[in-house]
């Protein structure tokens, strides 16, 4: 059961990336270091609530 999730930058709170996640297997929220084109640097991106 794959669901689409969105990632938002922790510094500017913009939604930059989307991905898929199996919510039956991975219960907690994901946090990744990705490039934010508005901050112009690598920042932490957290999974957003729906």
Automatic annotation (TrEMBL):
GO MF term list: structural constituent of ribosome
Keyword Ribosomal protein: yes
InterPro entries in alphabetical order: Ribosomal_bL33, Ribosomal_bL33_sf, Ribosomal_zn-bd
Keywords per UniProt: Ribonucleoprotein, Ribosomal protein
Entry-linked Pfam families: Ribosomal_L33
One GO term of the biological process aspect: translation
The family this protein is said to belong to: Belongs to the bacterial ribosomal protein bL33 family.
Protein name per Swiss-Prot or TrEMBL: Large ribosomal subunit protein bL33
Organism whose genome encodes this protein: Candidatus Saganbacteria bacterium CG08_land_8_20_14_0_20_45_16
Name of the gene: rpmG
């Amino acid at each position: 059961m794959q669901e689409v999730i969105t990632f938002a930058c922790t510094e500017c709170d913009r939604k930059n990336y989307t991905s898929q996640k199996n919510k039956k297997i991975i219960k907690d929220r994901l946090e990744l270091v990705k490039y934010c084109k508005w901050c112009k640097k690598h920042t932490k991106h957290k999974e957003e609530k729906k």
